[in-house]
Every structure is written in C-alpha cells, then in structure tokens.
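Incident log, support desk, overnight shift.

02:14 A customer reports that sequence design results differ from what the structure should imply. Their input is reproduced verbatim below. On-call engineer (initials T.W.) acknowledged and began investigating.
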C-alpha cells in the first residue's frame, strides 16, 4: 500500500547565515596546512576521524543532486515532525531548521548508555545553482525530507557545441 507524501511549507526571503557545521580545531589546522602547502600536502599519511565531532550529531545528513533543470536536496530528519521543520531559501543558500521533541519521562536508575539526542538543529547548504523559490516542492516521508528546487532559466546546465 503506497503512503501519501506530506507537504512541508517553504519560506523564502532573507535568512541568517550559519555555518554548515562547527569546525573542530583539527579541521581548522588541516585547512591552514592545505592553504599553505597546497591541497593533499600529506594526505596519504592521514586518516579521517574515527569518531564524529561533538557537533556532528545535531546536523541532519544531506544529499544535494544537481540535475539539468533542478536541484534535489534530501535530508535525514528522523523523529522530527513536519510541523517542527522550517525550510528557507535566499539566493543559492538553503537552510533547514528543526527540533526533535519528546515527552519528558523520569527514568529511575543510572543509564548504562544514553545516545538518543533531542533538541534543535540548523543546517545551511550552498546550492550548485540559483533556484526559483516560488516553485520549490517539499515532501517528507519516513524521516526523509526531499526538496525539489527548479533552477532559474539562466542557471540551467547547457551543452555547448564546438564548431
């Protein structure tokens, strides 16, 4: 049985600029070395962080797909109701804000493990092209927010024939 997708309202206009995610001091140092010595200065000798940054858990993971006529953004927002999500666009910048809420329940005893996070989040993404804010479609199903953002005519990808 197919489940009907739910629409999510999209706001347009000016938005506050926020970083896509907080940068750790180690990432800042890597960036400075890359700027000074050039990209990949010691890349074969480095490895990625095995543990996520303390700031990563609040940011929804997102895919941005650049198609010929539109940009598609998919963001994981499990446990968040569509009423608690705000999507805004300004130029080629998209911001997704939301909050996962839960009922307060007092637990007796000591937690052995506590991994479930609650609270507000905000994720700002730079889009690969300028989009038509008035034609954005937003749907949410099974904890996945999907935005289809039609490109403005001048931003559409074209193939140039070489004579």
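02:41 Re-run completed on a clean worker. Output:
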């Amino acid at each position: 049985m197919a489940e009907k997708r739910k629409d999510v309202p999209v706001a347009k206009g000016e938005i506050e600029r926020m970083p896509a995610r907080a940068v750790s001091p180690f990432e800042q140092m890597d960036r400075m070395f890359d700027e000074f010595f050039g990209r990949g200065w010691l890349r074969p000798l480095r490895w990625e962080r095995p543990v996520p940054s303390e700031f990563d858990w609040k940011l929804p993971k997102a895919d941005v797909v650049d198609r010929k006529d539109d940009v598609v953004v998919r963001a994981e927002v499990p446990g968040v109701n569509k009423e608690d999500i705000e999507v805004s666009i300004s130029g080629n910048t998209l911001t997704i804000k939301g909050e996962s809420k839960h009922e307060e329940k007092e637990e007796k005893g000591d937690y052995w493990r506590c991994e479930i996070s609650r609270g507000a989040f905000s994720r700002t993404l730079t889009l690969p092209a300028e989009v038509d804010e008035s034609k954005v479609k937003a749907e949410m199903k099974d904890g996945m927010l999907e935005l289809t953002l039609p490109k403005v005519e001048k931003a559409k990808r074209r193939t140039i024939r070489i004579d």
